[in-house]
């Protein structure tokens, strides 16, 4: 099996990802030339020899003569989700061992709490609410078992990154003539290492490229596979997040039970006896202490679980990013589909171009028809709204005009009535004055001048 190594790793002792045997990277690492003297793409690790099962290195190159075996693929195992039943078994065993050890330090009943050592204090905390604390302990170790199994899967994925999945000996580029040799090389990798995120993604991309001779399709497939792997990794933390939520909740449940027990221990039957009062207060204090101990255990477990979960999640994201970077920086630049020309036939390129343009034009016309239909619908709606608005304006204008006409008519009528009454009154006054003047015309009016008396005159 041929491995790859970066120049800065020269001279280091590593383990073979295939058989787990220790071997040393040569002090001098030379990059083998590719076909035509073209240097290998950036990111391709240098080779440090062929490794046979059992250790050792060899100077003879591997015979990469393309073989045409039947390809049946391989069954892909889950790269990130842990076996829930295995993790449960590990959690039960770890919980039993932990409780057996911690409860063996339980202090005597008559010992004062001030004399407890650390182990006796912890034993007393767990013993105070054993059902709740025991269940929280099981949740904690179950979640830790899931993280441990996931870490083993991640270690397997990291080992697979050491594989030289695209040896430059097979060609400097991946085209229609060499892609089969690269796929055969992948099928020749050890079974337990080729079932990994990186190898599976590269195999799928190469097999699609072999069938369609189209780089864009292969890149799209690998990008979609990256999204699937990312979603799978994110979903694998759902059980751990559920435990992370349940552990503090169980702690609060223990708190409620402890408070309930403390309240039930209150007894006011004999308040004259000091010893009885002290006993009642002692029971209340013990109940409150047990309640807070349950909460303390739940919060500590939640905190201890949160750190490794986030650290492992980041490590898995980094591993997935390394796989994405390898595909984007090493695999994709080596693809050569001949400019999407099948068999180097320009007519094929023209047909593909015509089909692509026709498809784009058809899609554009369909979108244009849909847009025209929407614009026409909006225009009809606008006309309906305008007509309805005009009708409403006409109705309101007619109502306002009728009100104004009625008001004006009423005002004119009132004015005419008032003028008529005033004219009648004026005519009546004039008639009365005429009658009076007629009567005065036949009479004489005598005016006598009265002599005004002075201040010093006599009568």
Describe the structure.
There is one protein chain. This protein has 459 residues and is mainly alpha-helical. It folds into 3 domains: 62 residues, no CATH class; 264 residues, no CATH class; 64 residues. The chain contains 10 helices and 4 strands; from the N terminus they run ββββαααααααααα. The strands form 2 sheets. It has a two-stranded antiparallel ribbon. α1 packs across α3, α3 runs antiparallel to α8 and α8 packs antiparallel against α9. It is flat and about 160 Å long. It starts with a strand and ends in an 18-residue tail after the last helix.
Strand order of the largest sheet: 1-4
Largest sheet: 2 strands, antiparallel
Total helical elements: 10
Query: DSSP strand (E) fraction?
Result: under 5%
Number of strand segments: 4
Low-confidence stretches: 32-69
| Count of spatially separate domains | 3
Mean pLDDT: 76
Proportion of helical residues:
55-70%
Q: For the terminal residues, how far apart are their CA atoms?
A: 169 Å
Which structural class matches the secondary elements?
A: mainly alpha
Query: What is the 3D form?
Result: flat
| Radius of gyration over all CA atoms, rounded | 50 Å
Succession of helices and strands: EEEEHHHHHHHHHH
In short:
The protein is mainly alpha-helical and 459 residues long. It has helices at residues 84-103, 118-128, 130-160, 179-187, 191-194, 197-212, 215-235, 238-264, 274-334, 346-441; strands at residues 2-5, 13-15, 22-24, 46-50.
